[in-house]
Write a structure and sequence with these properties.
Layout (H helix, E strand, L loop, with lengths): L1 E6 L16 E12 L12 E6 L5 H9 L17 E6 L3 E5 L10 H17 L10 E7 L6 H12 L4 E6 L6 H12 L4 E3 L8 H11 L3
Bound molecules: guanosine-5'-diphosphate.
């Protein structure tokens, strides 16, 4: 199914990302497939932008906000429910790849290992070493919590495999001004974060600019 999307812009006083009001209509965004096996990764060579982060960090809401749609990516209050890689084609120019969230403590050990394996298989397949068309990653971090051990492990893994990545500080609307400053400062210890809120639309423009820039170099 193809949907014409809208970009979130400006401040909005809705309480949740699902209720946030999109304003500008521009993008075409379509769900392509949900993948559990590396053999099913797309082969048409469109650039891929991968979204990684702990479960419940706001990854789906970020994808929806960037695509300008409320329900493109599945959002939920139940951490750990997305267990496969979901591919969305955006404006016929990119794939957005929603990777399974990591670090959900209550998941059974076996399924945790399986998710990790799939994530790693994907990241290897699209690393500069193994692909002519390597991907770009966003590590999404909850601004209230900052970097956690799993995020740092992922960051080191990406660096070791020469994956270009950027960092998004999500759910900024949940912090007051002082907390925002403190949170961003703490996060800068490891990388400069792009502040984002799916509720207010803060950061959508800047994150899009960052994505576009990666395609020009
Ligand atoms: P994912 O598991 O990383 O894909 O996270 P989701 O996008 O499903 O979001 C998890 C929960 O956090 C949902 O209840 C969302 O409504 C909420 N959420 C996500 N982003 C934001 C945000 O920017 N601000 C606020 N206030 N809530 C958010």
């Amino acid at each position: 199914m193809v949907n014409r999307g809208t970009l979130l812009a400006g401040r909005n006083h809705a309480l949740s990302p699902e209720n946030a009001r999109p304003v500008v209509v521009h993008l075409k965004a379509e769900f392509v497939k949900s993948v559990n096996d590396p053999g099913q990764f797309p082969t048409d060579g469109l650039p891929e932008v991968a979204f990684l982060g702990r479960s419940n960090v706001g990854k789906s809401s970020l994808i929806n906000a960037l695509a300008g749609q409320r329900k493109l990516a599945f959002t939920s209050n139940t951490p750990g429910r997305t267990q496969s890689l979901n591919f969305y084609r955006i404006d016929d120019k990119f794939y957005f790849v929603d990777l399974p969230g990591y670090g959900y403590a209550r998941a059974p050990r076996d399924s945790v290992d399986e998710w990790a394996r799939l994530i790693e298989q994907y990241l290897r397949a699209r690393s500069p070493e193994h692909s002519n068309n390597p991907g770009t990653a966003f590590i999404v971090i909850d601004a209230r919590r900052g970097w956690m051990e799993k995020d740092l492990e992922l960051k080191m893994w990406l660096e070791a495999n020469r994956w270009p990545y950027m960092v998004v500080a999500s759910k900024m609307d949940k912090l007051n001004q002082a907390e925002q400053q403190r949170g961003l400062k703490a996060m800068r210890q490891y990388a400069e974060p792009l502040p984002f809120s799916a509720v207010t639309g803060r950061g959508v423009r800047e994150i899009w600019q960052a994505i576009t820039k990666t395609q020009q170099t």
